[in-house]
């Protein structure tokens, strides 16, 4: 007797193809997930590495900022010390200046002129006094121009004396100390001479 196969072979072939398709799809999904996972891990490692580098750079920047602040402090201290040294040098160079000025004033002021006030502001001298004649004041101006220490004599005014001192003229004169820069204009030395000179 002949054998007849009555199984639906087309249905079995279709199911086999579906099974293969599902298997390929599952394998593709697994491979895609693994690739995505690996890429994610690589990028996460790169980002973590970049974060670590950023933190390292931030720490180094903080250290450099501290060093810069220390350098600025040292520079300010250095400037302060240089200013003090310069001030000390100026004071050292001008410590005998008062004596030299008084000596030069005594040499420049001729007889017949009497100083009632001598005031120093910075490098400027103010002389107030009385004179027996204008010729003596002219002599004083010439001597001041020829002086090595005093310069730029300027006679502000001369006026005839009043009352009991009519023979004497009042005058006011300004002089500059040559080659001297005021150490502290805000705290000028003010030597004063009351009475007559010569």
Automatic annotation (TrEMBL):
- Where along the sequence do coiled-coil regions lie? 64-91
Q: Which GO terms describe its biological process?
A: type IV pilus assembly; type IV pilus-dependent motility
Task: Please list every transmembrane segment annotated in the UniProt record, as residue ranges.
Answer: 21-43
Superkingdom of the source? Bacteria
The keyword Transmembrane belongs to this UniProt entry's keyword annotation: yes
Question: Any idea which UniProt keywords this protein has?
Answer: Coiled coil, Membrane, Transmembrane, Transmembrane helix
* Protein's name in the database: Pilus assembly protein PilN
Provenance organism = Arsukibacterium ikkense
